[in-house]
Amino acid sequence: MAGVEETASAQVPAIAGTAEDASDSGGTPGCDSASHPEGVPSPGGPPSPEDPQRPGSVQRRDSAQGNALDLLGDPSQTEVRFRNRPESAGMARRLAAAVLHGQWRLPGSVTDDGVLLVSELVGNAVRHTGAHDFGLRMFRRRGWIRVEVRDPSRGLPCLLPMRELDTTGRGLWLVDRLADRWGVDLLPRGKTTWFEIRVLDR
């Protein structure tokens, strides 16, 4: 999967097909510590409050995720707007986890990938668009989840080749590796960068 899908119409096209269906446009020209980790108890000490074996830890995590939705908004119901600030990436990650894990009860691997990719798309919006704000929206349809980040810049993101030792420029490379489909929809004012991941419906 390489390149950027570019359209100029609806923000939410039908979710169907495979990764190859969304990547036939080719490249895109004109690119714009602690000694014991959290959740791991110290030898001989009591369990960490986030220890998954500790009674009540899951309930506390779900409560925290619900609080994030109450305070910031629910991106599965409406677009949540953020100011263009470095801390916005962390807030967007918390909302994504609250929806993927707390509401949709998706497996941990899907939640982890989704949260990581949200962070990368939001990071791109914060660092590279020059926009004052951006929006996060999440959708679920049978067999798929879709996440969109909308910003007022029409500058297209660029998928660059990566080398093993590169430490920057990995945002879209990770999206390309982990998402089943991704692309960019150009809007009259701005763009929507999105990704989709297949999920197994229970």
Shape: globular
Compute the average pLDDT. 73
- The share of residues in extended strands comes to 15-25%
Q: From the alpha-carbon coordinates, what is the Rg to the nearest angstrom?
A: 18 Å
Sheet with most strands: 6 strands, mixed
**Major sheet: order of its strands?**
1-5-6-4-3-2
| Number of separate helices | 4
**Total E-strand runs:** 6
**Low-pLDDT residue spans:** 1-30, 33-58
H/E element string?
EHEHHEEHEE
What structural class do the secondary elements suggest? alpha+beta
Distance between the termini: 28 Å
Helix content: 25-40%
Task: Describe the fold and architecture.
With 202 residues, this protein is α+β, with helices and mostly antiparallel strands. The chain is built from 4 helices and 6 strands, in the order βαβααββαββ. Strands 1-5-6-4-3-2 form a 6-stranded mixed sheet. The chain is globular. Residues 1-30 and 33-58 have low confidence and may be disordered.
